[in-house]
């Protein structure tokens, strides 16, 4: 049996007295795209944040490449998100004062790459995602779809092993959303990147290899492992 690239076991997270995750077990294989679906407030985003090491668990473990990242320091988990994890949020979260190229180059610059090679890599990724003409524009001068493509480029510039995408098309109209999602899927397939894709839309989940359904902070056994391709 293939050893999972990333797995969570017994993941439990509470916000005060309100349970967000109740003993969730998930695993993702190298290169696999897994959609996490379920109604609003069921714990989808919390699951993603815990797996990405953004948010600590109350109980349970998250294992990446056979290492329990819950035992790592915050600095270690932050470094992991700059190198082997990519994170993409619903609204992209580009830095408004920076150009598209500067935003995309940011992870490399934070990792110590020189400005010239970082910009060259950023321009290459913007070109792959069809927004090379936005390189020297700030986010305020772009459409929502263009901003999200730039955010995808930023998340992928380090060529992460895992991409966490939290409602990546939720703020876009249907056409822009489909275009951005196709760009994400094509890009990650080309690089063999595993993807944890949080969505409430069946059309988005249909792009995944497998679907996990959450309800009230737990995996719904009726939806576990259902192929959606």
TrEMBL record:
Q: Which Pfam families match?
A: ABC_tran (PF00005)
Which is one Gene Ontology cellular component term of this protein?
plasma membrane
Residues of the ABC transporter domain: 6-228
**Keyword terms:** ATP-binding, Nucleotide-binding, Transport
InterPro entries registered for this protein in UniProt: AAA+_ATPase (IPR003593), ABC_transporter-like_ATP-bd (IPR003439), ABC_transpr_LolD-like (IPR015854), MacB-like_ATP-bd (IPR017911), P-loop_NTPase (IPR027417)
What GO terms are given for molecular function? ATP binding; ATP hydrolysis activity; transmembrane transporter activity
CDD domains assigned to the protein according to its UniProt record, in alphabetical order? ABC_MJ0796_LolCDE_FtsE (cd03255)
Keyword Transport listed? The answer is yes
Q: This chain belongs to which protein, by name?
A: Putative ABC transport system ATP-binding protein
Its lineage reads: Bacteria, Bacillati, Actinomycetota, Actinomycetes, Micromonosporales
